Amino acid sequence: MSSAHAAELVLAAGCFAAGLACSAGGWRALLPRGVTLVDACARFGCGSLANTFLPARGGDVVRMSLFGRIVPGGMFAVAGAVAAFEVARWLAIVPLGIGAAGSTLPPVALAAPAAALAPIGIAAVLAARGSRRAATVMASLRRAPPAAYLLVLLWAAATLAAKVAGATLVAGAIGVPHAFSAALLVVPALELAGTVPLTPANIGVAEGAAALAFHAHGLSMERGLAAGFALHAVETAAGLAFGGAGAGLLLRRSPVLHRIVTVRPTTVWKRLLTLSTSMRRKIEPLLCELHAHTRWSDGALTVPELVDLYGRNGFDVLCVTDHVNRSDDPWLPADAPARGIVRANHADYLAELGAQAERAMREYDLLLLPGLELTYNDLDPYLAAHAVAIGCRAYVSVDDGIDVALANARGEGAALVAAHPYRARRGGPFPSRLTLRWSRDWRRLRDAVDRWELFNRHDLYGWTAERGLPSVANGDFHRPEHLHGWKTLLPVAKNEAAVVGYLRSSRPTFLTRIDPPLELPEAA
After folding, report:
1. How far apart are CA 50 and CA 33, in angstroms?
2. Less packed terminus of the chain by CB within 10 Å, N or C?
3. Cβ(288)–Cβ(390) under 8 Å?
4. Cα 332 from chain centroid?
5. Are 51 and 58 in contact (CB under 8 A)?
6. CA 491 to CA 286: how far, in whole Å?
7. Pairing mode of beta strands 471-474, 451-456
8. Would you state the torsion angle of the CA atoms of residues 137, 138, 139, 144, taken in this order, to the nearest 10 degrees?
9. Can you tell me whether residue 379 is helix, strand or coil?
10. pLDDT tens readout for residues 68-80
């Protein structure tokens, strides 16, 4: 190692790190939309860091757990994507091994793709027998389009190419003749050895497999063992660096770490003084957005993008309320593509909200609530009405009318808000697409809902205040410019039961207007 070229070894480590990034891309390819490549690399890298210290590839469990926090269906949905990537990886490795090693390739290597397919086959059998967890695994595979599987194969090939490049650079740096040919032998051997990782970082097994491959290339066993140690050391260093960067990125987003590193000594004694001189704690009001849409219906952002937008802008509570439409919605053309929440996709919708709720609280201290907008449209505007069901975790149909839907949502424990309660102008024409049912039948419907929108974004429905109806202010978010406007403040603890319970009560709410930041005038 004394004659090794440091620059080549550093470049080799970069190639191995690129291979890890490609593997993260392969995992991400079959996962639902919303997982960025950077986030996937960070979570995958944490597993690489864990594999350095845990035996039996314990880091893979860490990876699946971290991905499961942001993916609908959790770890079991991720398991399907992992199994598919493993199949693609072996489909790329075996031809390389056959071409490089020929008849000397162990027969067990030829069975690797079949062994990788076994978990998928077992999951399919269990799903057919009624296992819900196995059904989650298979559902994640069925939802992926065919192009995603081609992308997985490309990521697997890129992973293999990066490892071959890294092994070639290491072999060349330590003076192995015909370094590229040696790498074509060593990489399949290391992959095969990695199928039985008995030790942390596969120490000992990886070096032995590499030494045998170098020996088959023509090196002496002693020199092959030294080359194997060098190669594995560089690969392990790359894994540590890649994993450390990923862990640092996830920790940087964590509000817990932020609180730790920003605490001041004065804050500590002031808190102690407050505790010693006061027996009463005030609850700070929560800044709430109770009416927001995503791409699950007619919003412009995905759920993760919506969480990031509201989290970065200091909101405390965000309720996602995508539309549940009539199956024969007269406001939509007959040939319009179906969009919105239906019974068939509600479980996936709820699962994504659950996964993002954990991330929202961890990264932004943002309480993410599930909800629905019960959307009853009609050609007669006096029959049309929309209601926001906050905290609703069950699917509620509107096909039987808004009255039945409200009763069903209330039975599920949701807090109900009359959304954009328009009122027709006296003696004047009005657009047909208005929800006028609330203003016409407010006396009969006042007990069917808990709150009424006094403000919807910047629109004011003053008649609701004139009649003393309990009010809220919502953004009806569809696009980023809808972030600002009138919002609701709730003096309540930050948890779902407290927020929903407060909205269902008769206690007062407080309204505030959030304006966009003023742009500074340019210097003359």
Report:
1. 26
2. C
3. no
4. 31
5. yes
6. 6
7. parallel
8. 100
9. coil
10. 777 666 777 788 8
CA 304 to chain centre: 6
CA 340 from centroid of its chain's CA atoms: 20
| Long-range CB pairs of 66-71, under 8 A, 24+ apart, other chains included | 66/250, 67/27, 67/31, 67/35, 67/40, 67/43, 68/355, 69/355, 69/358, 69/359, 69/362, 70/34, 70/35, 70/39, 70/304, 70/355, 70/356, 70/358, 70/359, 71/31, 71/32, 71/35, 71/352, 71/355
Question: At 258, phi and psi to the nearest 5?
Answer: -60, -40
> Are 451 and 471 within 8 A, CB to CB?
yes
What SS3 class is residue 189?
A: helix
Rounded Cα gap, residues 323 and 373, in angstroms: 5
- CB 499, CB 490: distance < 8 Å: yes
- Half-sphere CA count of 105, side-chain side, radius 13 A: 26
Is-above-0.85 flag for pTM?
A: no
CB-based contacts of 439: which residues, under 8 Å, 6+ apart?
Answer: 421, 422, 423, 424, 463
For residue 127, what are its two tokens?
């799903």
Please state, in angstroms and rounded to a whole number, the distance separating the CA atoms of residues 484 and 514: 5
Instruction: Pick 201 or 372 by higher pLDDT.
Output: 372
Least confident of 200-204, 263-267, 438-442: 263-267
Terminus-to-terminus CA distance in the chain, angstroms?
62
Least confident range of 32-41, 82-91, 212-221, 366-375: 32-41
d(CA 372, CA 331): 19
3-state secondary structure 194-216: CCCCCCHHHCCHHHHHHHHHHHH
DSSP label at residue 35: -
> Are the C-beta atoms of residues 325 and 337 closer than 8 Å to each other?
no
